[in-house]
Specification:
Chain lengths: 407, 316
């Protein structure tokens, strides 16, 4: 008898958690450790509205892909996760980890094809709800510009003149370095490319119709090389974090970095007054604007709460939800949704305004040429160290792309 | 009342311990099970994995294709041999400098006229207790002329600055800089082992040799060193294995790519890039190639370790 009571008690105890589970708790994986407080506040707002609790669990950006994959492989992945655009994101879908989003209301209606294409797998499945794009800017220290009587440059030539003037005044013009092996391509070169190559022309390079060592590319690399003398003296030892610090403490006048850095640079860590402008186009070139689909939010196909996951994605794909989300994420992430959701007069609107009337395109290599990413970083580093000429870099990249196309 | 004869636990179950029996097996089993599940099986499984392509869910048998790629593909093989050679340089710094310093420190610390032995011993060992990532990050900042040039020049140590690119930014000096930081941090480990070994030498031997007229240098080279050869062999193997598994110091000082220009790329970072994380920013790992790298290195290490073991161990 005693035994029976004990078993009954144990069974009751086991059921208790089930009762308290009425409140659903989801987790969200992300690579934005910097945004924890803000995104969690946004998710708490969602909890107030729907009663579904979502916990934000970010991993450092450079470790995110590996960590997420291992979590998903081991069936302990987060219910919702930030999805990278293009091949990286599609790979997870191809392995069956993502919820297919095509039939989630709003996904097909509220986004442009361009915004959605970054999150569409080869078979046409949308593997994440497009969320935000990023851009790349020249950040400048307003106080230094005012002190030196410098106006925001309109052309690349004027930009170089500004750098020269600052250097002559004993101020390091740019804070960028090459030690991190990514920002030199993603922010600097990919920030410059839309000034020289439009989205349509990019397709011609991807197909091999145009050569990766034509005069446009030689021009891009030579213009890039002209920036190197204005980097800090020890640029080879400076990574992206240190570049941010160098600019943030007011040691340098400018920094070419991603729109996502605006939050940190203008935040409490530093007391500088930050402005920004797009990397100006050289005379005779139509100004471009890098607008890169950066992340979407994906649902985990193996989540224990598929209903809630879909509901959240649907909310994000609706103008109402996107508006709340846009107000909640840190400045520097430009909403992907077609509706006008950016807070009026905020930084995001200012960033969008920078791109008005300019040829917008994503980071050049992302769509088809990802295999050129590392070789391009290597070539840029070599140019910076003075070991490679612009022509040599263009030839090396062209040879790789021709070999790839020949396969 | 007569006390019951107590049962010898060894006789429990009616079986007795017979010399020459396999009774000892039961003592080995827990360790054996642990070893098989957590060491042997994963190692063999990684060999198996090197014959497959794709990740979980899409895995396909491809035979030796990963090895062919590793040794013939222009990019992959260049990176592999580059990392392999870098690793030997990294190892040479540790083997020669760290272990020589370890023996020297140990000889000084175990000298009978040495004062403040505990203090110095602690001082030498302290860096080993600090996380590699923290240490690497501190050195990364210290070696960056942007931050350290002015302060060092102010105190007359300007020659320590490698202008303009810094020790870690110059492909010619980066590997040496990283190796020396690692040597500095870990010199405490061989020191401790050699101290223990020297202390284990019978004082009578030293005394007898002094009576015979041996000077301290002769005592050191003819008596103390030959007596700790097994420990030197052990330390050499530990250095070898630890260096070929090194990852963290490069990760913290020079990114996963072994910047600048792959000059600090080691087998560990190469393996991580190919097998675990995938190359940034695509981040699609190729576990098969990663496993091929680790399997190749495993056999290469084996070829290095076995002769050293045979040479230095076993002769008691």
């Amino acid at each position: 008898m005693k035994k029976l009571i004990a078993i009954l008690m144990a069974a009751l105890m086991c059921m208790l958690p089930l009762v308290s589970l009425a409140e659903v708790e989801l987790t969200m994986g992300s690579w934005r450790t910097e945004d924890t407080a803000q995104v969690q506040a946004l998710l708490d707002k969602y909890y107030e509205m729907t009663g579904v609790k979502i916990t934000f669990l970010p991993t450092t950006s450079t470790q995110y892909n590996a960590t997420l994959r291992q979590q998903l492989d081991g069936s302990i992945g987060p219910d919702l996760f930030y999805s990278r655009s293009y091949a990286t994101g599609a790979e997870l879908y191809d392995n069956g980890f993502n919820v297919r989003c095509n039939d989630i209301p709003g996904v097909m209606e509220n986004f442009t094809d361009t915004a959605r294409s970054a999150f569409t797998a080869a078979d046409g499945s949308v593997f994440a709800v497009p969320f935000a794009a990023v851009s790349h800017f020249v950040y400048y220290n307003k106080a230094i510009f005012a002190e030196q009587g410098i106006e925001i440059p309109k052309t690349f030539e004027e930009f170089l003149a500004v750098c020269e003037k600052l250097k002559a005044a004993g101020i390091t013009p740019l804070a960028n370095g090459i030690a991190a092996n990514w920002d030199i391509l993603e922010c600097v070169l990919c920030g410059m490319i839309p000034n020289y190559i439009t989205a349509e022309e990019r397709l011609a390079y991807e197909s091999g119709e145009k050569k990766m060592n034509d005069e446009t590319w030689v021009r891009i690399y030579s213009d890039f090389a002209k920036l190197v003398p204005y980097f800090p003296e020890a640029f080879a030892s400076i990574d992206n974090d240190q570049a941010n610090v160098l600019f943030g403490i007011g040691d340098t006048a400018m920094l070419i970095d991603g729109s996502w850095s605006y939050g940190t640079l203008s935040g409490d860590d530093y007391d500088i007054d930050v402005g920004f402008f797009t990397i100006p186009a050289p005379e005779g070139f139509a100004p471009g604007f890098s607008l890169h689909p950066d992340f979407g939010i994906a649902g985990n196909a193996a989540s224990a709460h598929p209903e809630e996951v879909r509901a959240f994605l649907q909310w994000l794909a609706s103008p109402e939800g996107a508006k709340v989300a846009a107000a909640g994420v840190p400045a520097g992430f430009l909403p992907s949704i077609s509706a006008d959701v950016a807070p009026e007069g905020g930084i995001v609107s200012q960033m969008f305004a920078e791109g008005e009337g300019k040829n917008a395109d994503m980071r050049f290599v992302w769509s088809k040429m990802m295999s050129l990413y590392t070789p391009m970083v290597d070539q840029l580093n070599a140019i910076c160290r003075g070991e490679q000429t612009p022509e040599g870099a263009a030839d090396a990249i062209n040879a790789l792309w021709e070999a790839e196309l020949a396969k | 009342m007569t006390a019951k004869p107590r049962k010898n636990p060894a006789f429990r179950g009616g079986r007795c311990i017979r010399p020459g029996g396999i009774y000892w097996m039961r003592y080995v089993i827990p360790a054996l099970v642990f070893y098989v599940i957590f060491m042997a099986y994963p190692m063999l499984d990684s060999v198996r994995l090197s014959l497959y392509e794709g990740t979980a869910g899409t895995r396909q048998f491809v035979g030796f294709a990963n090895y062919v790629r590793l040794f013939t593909d222009e990019v992959v093989s260049t990176r592999f041999w580059n990392a392999f050679m870098n690793n030997w340089v990294f190892f040479a710094y540790h083997m020669i400098l760290q272990n020589a310093l370890g023996i020297t420190f140990a000889a000084i610390l175990t000298n009978r006229t040495m004062r403040g032995r505990q203090f110095y011993q602690t001082l030498i060992f302290i860096p080993c207790t600090v996380a590699v990532l923290v240490m690497g990050y501190l050195f990364k900042i210290m070696m960056n002329p942007q931050w350290s040039k002015a302060p060092l020049e102010n105190v007359g140590l300007g020659f320590l600055v490698h202008s303009p690119q810094g020790w870690l930014g110059d492909p010619g000096t980066a590997l040496s800089a990283v190796s020396l930081v690692s040597v500095w941090q870990w010199v405490g480990i061989p020191t401790m082992m050699f101290v223990a070994a020297f202390q284990g030498i019978d004082d009578d031997l030293i005394e007898a040799s002094s009576i015979e007229g041996a000077n301290p240098w002769q005592q050191f080279t003819r008596i103390r060193i030959p007596l700790i050869i097994p420990v030197i062999g052990m330390v050499a193997i530990m250095t070898f294995v630890a260096n070929f598994n090194a990852f963290d110091v490069v990760f913290s000082m020079e990114t996963l790519d072994g910047a600048p220009n792959y000059s600090t790329d080691l087998i560990g970072t190469l393996f991580y890039r190919y097998g675990v994380a995938g190359q940034h920013p695509v981040g699609i790992p190729e576990p098969g190639v990663g496993a091929a790298i680790s399997t190749s290195i495993f056999f290469m290490l084996l070829c290095g370790v076995i002769p050293v073991l045979v040479k230095t161990q076993g002769k008691e």
